[in-house]
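I would like you to sit down with the pair of lines that follows and say whether tokens and residues agree.
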Amino acid sequence: MAEKDILEKSLLSYEDVFTDCINTLVYDGRRRLEEGRTQPAPTESFYQGAEGLRNQLCDTSRYLLEEGRIVAQYLIENETGLRRKQILRKVSYQGGAYRQQLGNGRPAYAVIGIVMAWSGKGSRIPRSLHQLLEEDGVPADLLEQVDEARMEVIHMNSLPAETRRKFTGDMGFVADFLNEGSFQGRSGQRIRHPSALCRMMETLTGDSRFTGQIVELMEKESKGEDVMMCEYIDMLEARGEARGVAIGEARGVTIGEARGETKLSSLLERLYEQGRDEEAKQAVLDTTARARLYQELRIPNFSTNP
């Protein structure tokens, strides 16, 4: 799980990928954030725990700047296993970000957070603080005194096509593959971060083909050449075909051996039934004698279902 989180962060650490995710998932495709107008924000905040001051780390965070002033901070959490009290985690991250604004002498700014879920499964966890507290038995008259907080959870494995079409960068490749099993819809699109994309795809799918071409892709990138998705698709298909041939050959050998053993076993059984022990020994040691005996005793070829 830790490795998966790191690789998801790796792709989201790029400004263009981060802003594309926020624009698509928060602003419904409107280009509210632009490259060059954001900068990395702290991912660490502190709180008082039972054993003293503790720290907490969110996954990825960036500031939105307007005329050189911070107007918003965006937080993206990657989750492979949503917890029932996930809303408390979100509130604590946002609370930490607001806490850092105290006493800095600058105008306050908004803190906006989303959760990107990668589990491939839906979830019925509480999406608001009031819902969680109500489920845990907090009386209605007390809930009225509690400030509400809500949580947006985006399940990346079940994004509708109309949402996925709004991605303009590398996260669009990930979203399309998770939902369609293919990159074909973006075959003419440039891959901006080949290494990070390949590693994330392998981690999410468990398929090593995705990283098999990293060296070649990085060489193209180092030469200043664009890496297009259509090229990557061709590489994946070639690697898949090579793997298929290798598996087919290995399987053919195994099946062939199984058939040969079945045929030989039948021959030896017939010879021993007829008391031809010496010829049975010959059949094991001498392929010419074996072929003659197959023909003589009309031993058929045995089929084995692949």
